[in-house]
Amino acid sequence: MMSNKNSNQKYLIIHADDAGLSHSQNKAIMQSLEEGVVSSYSIMVPCPCFDEIAQFAKQNPEFDCGVHLTLTCEWKSYKFGPVLPVTEVPSLVDDDGYFPMSRDEVRKKANPIEVEKELRAQIDRMLSMGIKISHLDSHMYTIGLSPDLLDVYKRLGRDYNLPVFLDEHHLNEFGIDIKQELSASDFCVDNTYLGDYSMFEKGQLSKYYEHILNELPNGFNMLLVHPAFDDDEMRQITIDHPNFGSEWRQIDFDFLNDNRTSILLKENNIQLISWGEVLTKKPCIED
What we know:
Distance between the termini: 5 Å
Low-confidence stretches: 283-287
Oligomer: single chain
Order of helices and strands: EHEHEHHEHHHEHHEHHHEH
Number of strands: 7
Strand content: 5-15%
Mean pLDDT: 92
Shape: globular
Radius of gyration: 18 Å
CATH topology: TIM Barrel
Number of helices: 13
């Protein structure tokens, strides 16, 4: 297995998660793709605003669009469940037929056979809409919780001939043995960056993103963002959820659409990269 960590180029995907979650999320992501610095996004197929963002994706195939494979619904009063009938995937839902709120519930209850069945249905629904899919990734990285789920994830990538987002940090966090579970045919992001709650509390989330760009190392990097607007819709969805809440998402949007961010990318010689280019530039981890 090989790595791209010794590359003399700073490659970066600025990736927007959670398209389809809400109209606010969709509108912010569309604008950040068309006018900002977002270079990739992914869609949550089971969510209420899927059709809106699916039409955009179909009409704008030039933007990298992945499937944000979804097995959880973390919101207090905003609920959604599987694409498939609940009777076909009973281990994936709570007593009310919705996805569980936490990854731990998925880890404890989810049957990998039902997981694969549901996730194939999510991918197939995207394809049935005529959407060109660039990659697969995972909401809350739930698909990396266990070796069995990781096997499903990688198999989906092979079967649909799509790259999958593999991140060494998240896999280690879940206790996955990298040497055991990944092979030379896999590839990993060298460095993944995500907003920091302590910086958000201090009112310095944008400064934190600026620091990431100023200190970005060589290799294949990923910045995960969640742009939306701090409006009534998002405030209701994210009630009692300050991390990645509506205020946080507005900060993400503002940073992504600020001309100073484009200048930072140029000043630091950062090359925004597509998922198609990933396949040619990025094998996986070292032996």
